[in-house]
Amino acid sequence: MEKVLKIILALLFLLCLFPLPYGYYEIVRFLALIGFVYLAYQTYQKGNEKAAFIYVALAILFQPLFKIALGRTIWNIVDVIVGIGLLISIFRNEQKINNNGD
C-alpha cells in the first residue's frame, strides 16, 4: 500500500508542473495531506521516527487549510524534489528488504 501511495503522490506532484485548473492543485494538496499523514503513521509504527517526522513536515507543507505562499516556481521545485524523493524512497526500502533477506 505504501509503495502504491508513494507512486500516486509522486505522479500527482509531477503533474503539477503542467498548467492545470486551480482545482487540481487544491485536490493534490488535500490528497498529499492525507497521504503524508498515513505514511507518517505507518513509518512511526515501524520505528522509523526520522521518516515519520519528514512525512509530518510534508503534510504540514502541503495542507490546504493555511496555504504557504511560495510562488509557482518554488512550488514546482518542491513538487519535483518531493516527487523524486518519494520514488527514491521506494527503491531504498526495497534494497533494505532485499539486503535483510540475504
Explain what you see.
- By secondary structure, the chain is mostly helical.
- The protein has one domain.
- The protein is 80% helix and 0% strand.
- Helix 1 runs antiparallel to helix 2, helix 1 (2-15) packs antiparallel against helix 4 (72-101) and helix 2 (22-45) packs antiparallel against helix 3.
- The longest helix has 30 residues, at 72-101.
Keywords:
single chain; 102 residues
Note the total helix count.
4
Helix content: over 70%
Low confidence ranges: none
Q: Estimate the mean pLDDT confidence.
A: 89
Distance between the termini: 24 Å
Protein name: FUSC family protein
InterPro entries: DUF6804
Keywords: Membrane, Transmembrane, Transmembrane helix
Pfam families: DUF6804
Topology diagram in text:
Layout: H1 2-15, H2 22-45, H3 49-62, H4 72-101
Helix pairs in contact: 1-2, 1-4, 2-3
Brief write-up:
The mean pLDDT is 89.
